[in-house]
Amino acid sequence: MQPLLSVLVFLLSTMTALVTPSAGPESSPTSTASPVIPVQPIVTYIPPVASSKAPLTKIFAYAGSGFENLVLRSNGQILATTAFQEPLLFYVDPLRVRPGVVLHNFTSLRNTVGITELAPDRFYVHGRRREGGPFTVFSVDMRYFSILPNGTVSIPPKVKEIGSIPSSLGLNGMTHLRKSDTFVLIADTLLGAVWKFDVDTGKYNLMIQDSSMAGPSNKTEFAAYGINGLRAQNRTLFYCNSGRQTFYKMK
Q1: Taking a C-beta distance cutoff of 8 angstroms, is the pair 159, 124 a contact?
Q2: Is the dihedral of CA 171, 174, 178, 183 positive or negative?
Q3: CA angle in degrees (0–180, nearest 5) for 31-10-135
Q4: Which of 10, 80, 193, 223 could tie 90 with a disulfide, CB 3.0–4.6 Å?
């Protein structure tokens, strides 16, 4: 493992219970994480060495604003969200058997950001509404999706709006703890927190807010960002802090 930056590891008390969802947009979440226990970095910085032998193959190109996030289906196919002023969801075939296509245009959103798969072929996407509206979560059901070899979508995914989180400031990465859960976890990079959003009811709670998730005090441009990407594995939450250029884990 050769990270670009020193890795700071923070161990938190075991999450014995998740916060009960609130009543929705009228909620006033105040829950915070257990106090962190600082630990010395366990990985020493080693300058990365690029390999000239690493095989690279371009599988898809898009001339728009650029991609923001991606997730893999069980068959290896890729779903990707787009940044800035394009609220699109792309389908990309890494084997290039079928051309990449736009699966859905979220016309009510300014862009698409986080994406995760909670149950087999049942994905969830969020993005900010146009005209400064709240971040909103959508379900994308790919169970009956079908695409022809020429790239024509014969059966599109079923897309449904679930709900919004008006109290959020800047939602970013999204993940889940277990496939059996009915909620997702969404990083709020400007608030320095993680939201819990129930995909069945649309209710939400501020589940974790910790200093390790906040951006640095000298908040100038990109440095204002805190927690960004996050992933969970074996009941452990891993996340990076863009402004502080650090990486953490939480149990």
Answers
A1: no
A2: positive
A3: 45
A4: 80
Q: What is the pLDDT of residue 15?
A: 34
Checking 48-55 for CB contacts under 8 A at 24+ apart, the result is 48/2, 48/4, 49/2
Using CB atoms within 10 Å of the CB of residue 123, give its burial: 0 to 12 exposed, 13 to 18 middle, 19+ buried: buried
Residue 199 contacts residue 21 (beta carbons within 8 Å): no
Residue with tokens 């923070």: 10
Contact by Cβ (8 Å): 227, 241: yes
How many helices (H) and strands (E) in the chain? 0, 19
Say which amino acid occupies 78: I
For residue 230, give the nearest of 66, 76, 115, 138 by alpha carbon: 115
Burial class (CB in 10 A: 0-12, 13-18, 19+), 142: buried
Which amino acid makes up residue 29?
A: P
Displacement of CA 84 from its chain's centroid (Å): 15
pLDDT digits (tens, 9 = 90+) for 187-236: 999 999 999 999 999 999 999 999 999 988 776 655 568 999 999 988 89
Low pLDDT (below 70) residues in the chain: 1-48, 50-52, 219-224
SS3 annotation, 196-237: EEECCCCCEEEEEECHHHCCCCCCCHHHHCCEEEEEEECCEE
Tokens coding 63: 């001339």
Residue 162: both structure tokens together? 């679930």
Distances (CA, A) of 4 to 59, 132, 169: 26, 35, 28
